[in-house]
Amino acid sequence: MDLQIQYLLMLQHFREATNGLFDGFFLGVTMLGELMIPFMITAVIYWGINKRAGQLILFAYGITLYVNVFLKMTACIKRPWLLNPSVKPIESALPAADGYSFPSGHTAGAAAVWGSIAFNWWKNKLIRYCALLIIFAVAFSRNYIGVHTPQDVIVSMVLGIFIILGADALLIQIEKSKNADWIFYASAMILTFLLVAYLQIKCGCQMQSYNPLTDNVNPLAMKHSAYPKITFLAGIFTGWILEKRFVNYRVPDGYSRKKVVWLIAGIAVLYLIMKHLCTLFMLFVPAYVAHSLLAFVCTLFITAIYPLVLKKVFS
């Protein structure tokens, strides 16, 4: 850990020596591992380019969320500045860096989304290298802004590789069997329920010894922040099974103005949902419940609701 802290301090000294010249750039890069941009790119791929490729991205992302939540709540590794007070992250990055550190959620998300894009279009060198560059850039940005150790991002990237390969193999097996989709969906929902139960037990045990005056991470807050990730995962697989069984959307062939217009319209609606629906939910339910509902609605919109609209439009 000392070497990792020294590495972060070296980057910190560089930030200070350059008077934060590159801070804005790397804060922008780290956004490529957040939800908004990758999610919209995934929607465009799923609706208008290659549905199978979009499914792989969503499967990889969903499984990544599951693994990420489990590892964070199991390892309970603190953020770098809590491990060593000498580490001073960029202040504007702190609101999105709450809770435990290991593994890096931003890097894991980037590895799932951009790694799946590289995997699907591996023969296209431009797409492959750009996607891989984004993954490494996001991983480095998490170190540069001081919110993750190298261990956090390296493990996330390695996990991303195995998860993409596993998700692709899983989709192949599901496509071979008539009822494998229902079996997988039932298994995924059972595992999701088990993860929720695990969080309840883990949080209950941690809260018994939690001291708000000395402990920097609130177990209850961590549990609440995990719920939207779990409903996000549940929404991915619920929308997938609904689309597969009842919608059966096929991406329209070729390029047309009509296709572009409807893709832009879908992205605009998705953006409005992601930006404003949670505020409406919070009028009636607690914030963590509102964010959980939003996550489920967003994934359902991408995987099933808007594909149904597009099917009717292009039929």
**Helix and strand sequence:** HHHHHHHHHHHH
Could you name the ranges where pLDDT drops below 50 across 5 or more consecutive residues? none
Return the structural class: mainly alpha
Largest sheet: none
The radius of gyration over CA amounts to 20 Å
Number of H- or I-type helical stretches: 12
Helix content: over 70%
User: What is the general shape?
Assistant: globular
Structure, explained:
The chain is mainly alpha-helical. The chain has one domain. It has twelve helices and no strands. It is globular, with a radius of gyration of 20 Å. The mean pLDDT is 91.
Write the SSE topology.
Layout: H1 2-17, H2 23-30, H3 36-49, H4 51-75, H5 80-83, H6 105-120, H7 125-144, H8 150-176, H9 180-209, H10 219-247, H11 257-281, H12 287-314
